[in-house]
Design a protein that fits this description.
The complex is a heterodimer of chains A (447) and B (317). Chain A is α/β, with parallel strands linked by helices and 447 residues long. Chain A is built from 12 helices and 19 strands. With 317 residues, chain B is of the alpha/beta class. In chain B, strand 3, helix 4 and strand 4 form a beta-alpha-beta unit. In chain B, helix 1 packs across helix 5, helix 1 packs across helix 11 and helix 5 crosses helix 11. Classes of the chains: A alpha/beta (447), B alpha/beta (317).
Chain lengths: 447, 317
């Protein structure tokens, strides 16, 4: 495979038509009329060139839950969805609460080569909410962890949360909080409201999320730390974050694609594919989340890709696991929920799915987007495509997608990670092809 | 009728049809040999993940009176206690040729999952799922009310004008949910009485009146007072301070019973906590329908099984 790639006739997120010459892992040249006979040619006509997508919230499940996903299979799902960097959440087994585990996850990511895998470190040992994990050791390890989260569990103890916020400041890190008051959500199954009352499913009240966010933004203000709020799901949470930002508190917030498109009404079928934590809310919440993204209250979109094996979803609702896969569908769902409704443009998508998540996670190389001299992380999307989302579109190990059978817009045609393709002509490159490309670029950067 | 999963969404015609067939089934019970050959060769499985001897034997008696073969499958001490999934159990029952599965499950929606899954082709009857629904209980309650009001002339009638007050742990009660949908569909006016902690959220969207004050609710002289079983353990989750206070505020005691009109019925789905939500005097008074409810339960369940398993033949004919 050539070390150079020439994309012709594409349009950047801001609407600028351009050719893009990628060479030695970086964007070598931009402009129209570029030519390079030896480069791998990609016809970009009709395609939008987005900066490589960055996911701040991914569950890769390895080590420990390899029957759901591995770093390799999750990396492939990510590349297929147009991502070039993902943050691997810490709720593995063993938990990513030591330098050893985060370095292992990072090494597995490097070996796979499809995306840059940035491990997230646990805030507390074993996610148990009792004692701080070795945050410093993880920050200073080869994995250089900057995001710390007990995701899946809330750091509910106020003193521990305060200390965590303060302590990570030492390492320029951020605590990403899974905001869920545990006592208010014992046995919770779905959004609490009229529908949960009717269906007889234990409610997960909005206040359980909002109360923790309110407490945490005030803690962040008090100790002068920055805070990141995972998967904001309610209108009230958007209000609290908006208030905090107006007050000058250093808080960032994420929303998932599914909370931007789907509502709790899907639970009426008791089909556990729609069981997720935090739960799907109602239409008013969906609209508030969209508005929050539009006005900048919510900073980023993150997938919360959560693979589960068939048997964990093929059962009664209460017995099923929480979570849905989302890497492969994210961009299409964003296009459906936000672009087609005119709430965001493609430049906003580049911001909320690439530049800002990279900034929050301290991932280098994404601050300028597709620019001359910047690392070549590029996602080519065909916005005119439409398809019925099907099992074949899922490229990870698990199939617990809520979108199967839905018609979604857009298609990732090519993904370029550090200057080499991981997806070409809409197809994932093979493990061998990626290994060869990666090796060449690796030699280049060492040479 | 393919399945009976809930009373939510049932039409008045469907409900009246079931109750009318149940009247026919009740007549069968008065015969010298109380048995019909209509489900001969059919296999009905009682799949019970929760203990409920009362409901199980009621379904068992109903199936046997219709000459069906009955298999009782209790989760305790079975393959389920060894970790077998609902899916595998369903496929096992399908392989054994079950024509109908009566399922009692601790998880809301389990019967719906079973009916939709494709794991098994049998008709599914919900015999109580979590805190969701218990449709045959509501049907037997409606049947009991209709018989008390209309006697032998009950066929074809609904419950128009009938005022029903349901008292107790509405939040956790599948009986309350099924009754709200069914009784209102049949034309009854339903009011719910409970402390606010035991009232479901957004209850304002239900087609019912809500009252926190039992004495106030009883002063309106309802035709039916339905007392729900209260679990004393609820006090540990702070739903109410203790059993004494609950009983004082929301229990049907002798004094409250005496204030009810002579014609009012006192119902209870059983099993009762005498002295907690209902006094012995109320439970045993002539107004109490508790024993009728048990007898009518068999007739109603016969009707449901008949419509589920023999109904298809009628449609084909």
């Amino acid at each position: 495979m050539s070390r150079r790639i020439l994309i012709t006739g594409a349009v950047l997120a801001d609407g600028t038509p351009t050719d893009i010459l990628v060479s030695d892992g970086i964007v070598a040249e931009l402009g129209t009329g570029l030519s390079d006979a030896e480069a791998l040619a990609i016809d970009g006509a009709g395609l939008i060139a987005l900066p490589g997508l960055v996911d701040l919230h991914t569950h890769l499940r390895e080590p420990g839950f390899e029957h759901s996903e591995t770093v390799l299979t999750g990396s492939r799902a990510a590349a297929a969805g147009g991502f070039t960097a993902v943050h691997a959440m810490a709720n593995t087994s063993p938990v990513a609460d030591t330098a050893g585990v985060v370095e292992q996850v990072q090494a597995l990511g490097e070996d796979a080569g499809y995306v840059t895998v940035r491990p997230v470190g646990a805030v507390t040992i074993g996610l148990a909410g009792g004692q701080l994990a070795e945050i410093g050791a993880m920050a200073q390890s080869r994995a250089k962890v900057r995001v710390f989260s007990d995701d899946g569990k809330c750091v509910s103890d106020a003193v521990l949360m305060r200390r965590a916020l303060e302590y990570v400041t030492t390492f320029d890190g951020v605590v990403a909080q899974h905001a869920q008051e545990p006592r208010l959500t014992e046995d919770a199954q779905m959004n609490e409201g009229a529908l949960s009352s009717e269906l007889g499913l234990e409610g997960w009240p909005a206040v359980a999320e909002e109360a923790i966010i309110a407490r945490d933004v005030l803690l962040a203000e008090h100790v002068g730390a920055r805070l990141h709020v995972c998967h904001v799901s309610t209108a009230g949470s958007v209000d609290v974050v908006r208030w905090a930002k107006a007050r000058g508190i250093r808080v960032t917030a994420e929303v998932t694609p599914h909370h931007l498109l789907l509502t709790e009404d899907l639970a009426r079928s008791y089909d556990a594919r729609f069981k997720v934590n935090p739960p799907l809310r109602n239409q008013a919440d969906v609209e508030a989340l969209r508005a929050g993204l539009a006005d900048g209250t919510i900073d980023i979109i993150a997938t919360d890709h959560a693979p589960h094996p068939v048997e964990d979803k093929d059962c009664a609702w209460a017995d099923a696991a929480f979570g849905m896969v989302g890497l492969e569908s994210a961009l299409s769902v964003v296009q459906s929920a936000l672009i087609e409704s005119g709430i965001l443009g493609w430049a906003d998508v580049a911001r909320v799915l690439s530049r800002v998540p990279a900034e929050i996670g301290r991932v280098a190389g994404y601050d300028r987007g597709i620019a001359q001299g910047a690392p070549a992380n590029i996602t080519l999307v065909d916005p005119a495509a439409r398809r019925e989302f099907a099992r074949g579109d899922l490229r990870g190990r698990s199939a617990n997608s809520p979108y199967l059978g839905m018609t979604l817009p857009g298609r990732v045609v090519a993904t370029i990670h550090r200057g080499y393709p991981t997806v070409l002509d809409g197809e994932l490159r093979s493990v061998q092809q990626v290994a060869i490309s990666k090796g060449k670029e690796g030699n280049e950067s060492r040479g | 009728m393919r399945h009976l999963l809930s009373t939510r969404g049932i039409t008045r015609d469907q409900a009246v049809q079931i109750l009318d067939v149940a009247e026919d089934m009740a007549d069968v019970a008065t015969r010298e040999v109380p048995r019909l050959p209509v489900l001969r060769g059919k296999t009905v499985v009682n799949l019970f993940y929760e203990d409920s001897t009362r409901t199980r034997i009621s379904f068992e008696a109903a199936a046997k009176r219709l000459s069906a073969d009955v298999i009782n499958f209790s989760a305790k001490g079975s393959s389920v206690s060894k970790g077998e999934s609902l899916k595998d159990t369903a496929q096992t029952l399908a392989a054994m040729g079950a024509d109908a599965v009566i399922i009692r499950h601790q998880s809301s929606g389990a019967p719906e999952v079973l009916a939709r899954s494709g794991w098994i082709d049998a008709g599914i009857v919900n015999a109580g799922d979590g805190t969701h629904e218990h449709p045959t209980q509501a049907l037997l309650d409606a049947f009991t009310i209709r018989r008390r009001i209309h006697g032998q002339a009950a066929r074809g009638k609904g419950l128009e004008g009938c005022r029903v007050t349901i008292v107790g742990d509405i939040l956790h009660s599948r009986v309350a949910r099924s009754n709200v949908w069914l009784l209102t569909c049949l034309g009854a006016q339903v009011s719910l009485v409970a402390p606010a902690t035991l009232m479901p959220l957004a209850i304002g969207e239900w087609p019912v009146e809500v009252d926190y004050d039992l004495d106030h609710a009883l002063s309106a002289g309802p035709d039916v007072v339905m007392m729900l079983r209260i679990q004393a353990e609820r006090m540990h989750d702070a739903f109410f301070p203790n059993a004494r206070e609950y009983s004082r505020q929301w229990g049907l005691d002798d004094e409250r019973l005496a204030r009810l009109p002579e014609s009012s019925m006192v119902m209870h789905p059983g099993p009762m906590n005498r002295g907690l939500e209902i006094s012995a005097g109320a439970a045993d008074s002539p107004r109490s329908t508790v024993r009728e409810q048990v007898a009518n339960g068999v007739s109603v369940r016969m009707a449901v099984l008949y419509l589920l398993l023999a109904g298809a033949m009628e449609e084909a004919a």
